[in-house]
Design goal:
Layout: E1 3-7, E2 15-20, E3 27-34, E4 38-45, H1 49-56, E5 62-64, E6 68-70, E7 75-76, E8 82-83, E9 88-89, H2 137-141
Antiparallel strand pairs: 1-2, 2-3, 3-4, 5-6, 6-7, 8-9
Keywords: Plasmid
Biased composition (Polar residues): 127-136
Region (Disordered): 118-151
């Protein structure tokens, strides 16, 4: 078990931290804050937390499947083209990308009742059924303090 805290690079862009979950050591909590975009909390395999932390120290705020990343305004393609002059991967924006925010899910098409609160001890990081997006609709439909529902 361990964790780490750092200020985000670029000055005034928040902070980031991660720590192994004290109950389920197979998982880790990663937190990234940004003054304009708020806080992102991600539950990941414990072995992936240090890598995510390292990626978050730069501009990316969120990642999605395929190593696409978002800086708060633009989605970028994965780093595949090396720029020898800057010694970094070229940042290539995704044309016509759209972003869906949690607040966009609060209309009549959202199904917050499909979401659930799970105890960390019951989460199996290797079970793909537990990664359904329905579990993310509960917080969006219940903005109250979720800790009130815990024993």
């Amino acid at each position: 078990m361990w964790g780490r805290y750092d200020d985000a690079r670029g000055g005034g862009e928040g902070w980031l931290a991660f720590t192994t979950d004290p109950i389920n050591h197979a998982l880790a909590w990663c937190v990234r804050t940004h003054p304009d975009h708020g806080r992102t909390v991600v539950l990941v395999h414990d072995g992936d937390s240090a890598d995510l932390h390292a990626h978050w120290t730069e501009r990316p705020l969120l990642f999605r499947t395929g190593d696409y990343w978002w800086d708060g305004t633009t989605w970028y393609r994965p780093g595949q083209i090396w720029d020898w002059s800057t010694e970094a991967f070229a940042e290539r924006p995704v044309a016509a990308a759209s972003t869906v925010y949690a607040s966009d899910q609060l209309d009549h098409t959202a199904h917050a009742e499909r979401g659930r609160i799970s105890k960390i001890a019951n989460i199996d990081p290797n079970d793909p059924q537990q990664a359904k997006t329905g579990s993310m609709t509960w917080p969006a439909g219940h903005p109250s303090d979720p800790r009130a529902h815990c024993p």
